Amino acid sequence: MPRELSFAERRDWLRLIRTQNVGPVSFRDLINRYGDAATALDELPALIRKKSIQPPRPEQVEAEMEYAENMGVRLICAIEPDYPAYLRALDPPPPVISVLGDISVLQKPCVAIIGSRNASAIGQRFANSLAAELGQAGYAVVSGLARGIDAAAHKGSLSTGTIAVLGGGVDHIYPRENTELHGHIAQSGAVISESPMGYRATARDFPRRNRIISGLSKGVVVIEAAERSGTLITARYALEQNREVMAAPGSPLDPRTKGCNRLIRQGAHLIETAEDVIAVLETLQPLDLREPGSSFRSAPFDAAQASSDIAKAKIRISGLLSPTPTPRDDIIRSSALPLPIATAALLEMELCGDIHVEPDGRIGSV
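-> structure tokens emitted (366 positions)
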């Protein structure tokens, strides 16, 4: 069951997730193998070939914890009670999130509104009014603080509680034109990130941000999205996470709406009003949320005794990989390896930088 971590436990979680090459998947697998973060940290040197990769020192993480406290930022681990239940249901969830603002907003039912940065005036007006009406109906509106549709949705729901998910740290504002909006959200809503404070986002961080946007939400509303758009990545994550995808239709002559129209053709709910969104969300069956904390139970497996099998498994798995990220389950199934052996091999390959793991767990060669 959810529980508050002690100071030492939270520090160890932070040290582990802040270690180079440790992402949500490898964090989960390390906890499953060793039972807790402290033991995993002790065992890391035996797993990582590159001795230059070391966990941050305890005093470094303690400085981050103190800085966050002084800035009014909560560091919440996935096993703790204040961690959002829908986000915890992801497989795997971000192990630690930073929250600037009112954490009670995270407990409200959430709906994401996302769309084009280069949005039309009418698209922004629709996003603003839709967010305002959904906020009045009791929903927290989630978006990514980008210009265009995101900013309009945040502005429309400021008075009722909005959640901005960032690719960089919660104190790194991008784009700079949304500095004032960021401040308003921190006062009346919440700013969230899985990145450390002070971290400046790069292109590879936005898929992680998008996964959290959909993961927090019961459903995702898309307003103006081109056919090749980062917005559609969020919609794909929503489908993978068993969330509802909704889209506003647009003119076939406007390239900014072609992605929305395609989503509708593929089965997304067509929405034109807040009532349409609420009708979709209220008719949902309750999401089958995984039992809180179940991701962090240790698995009975002695990796030391299986070291020879793991070494052979790495060779077999390497032959199955390609530059195109492939679902983890497909790789394990194709390898015909026992699940514990395949999981241990993938964990060690990620830690050593031999594979690239996407935020959703898909794996590609480096």
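The longest strand covers residues 96-101.
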